[in-house]
């Protein structure tokens, strides 16, 4: 954090993307992680999922903290006490997603929201290694909507970041600082879009005897 303060103190134009800190007086442009979780939860609850897992990276990252908060808020609003949440913090990679999925599936999650598309691919691989089918046995949602996700098997449901808009806003803010224009020093959020494809489906109804 001190490095950012030093850059601000020497007058270097600085804009932060997806890393908001109220202690740093610069423009911040961020994906709206609260909205992302609200959209994902609404979609999964609509499919009768009541135990949702969240596979994300380390808690030191602001987007991770916001996703965790957003998941809890959305679940409380839609399911109240009927909802259950499990969270697994690993790393933003295929292997990290696989490890998180093993943890979340062992806790009984019927759907997994992942902090990145790579984690989602790892989660799908881990589910298949346990003999499960996506989305029949477990639903999976990625985050970012990377270019190739529509071509995976099955095509990945993902929360699309508006990278073009975020980039444009960041560059415009930076150019404004360079030219000495008055800058908005708070945070501006860009709403993501849930792109529904083939990795989410209604929760399976248990046929076990009571």
UniProtKB/TrEMBL annotation:
Keyword Methyltransferase annotated: no
The keyword Transcription regulation belongs to this UniProt entry's keyword annotation: yes
Domain Transcriptional regulator LacI/GalR-like sensor: 41-200
UniProt KW keywords: DNA-binding, Transcription, Transcription regulation
Gene3D superfamilies recorded: 3.40.50.2300
Pfam family, one: Peripla_BP_3
PANTHER family attached to this UniProt entry: LACI-RELATED TRANSCRIPTIONAL REPRESSOR (PTHR30146), LACTOSE OPERON REPRESSOR (PTHR30146:SF153)
Protein name: Transcriptional regulator LacI/GalR-like sensor domain-containing protein
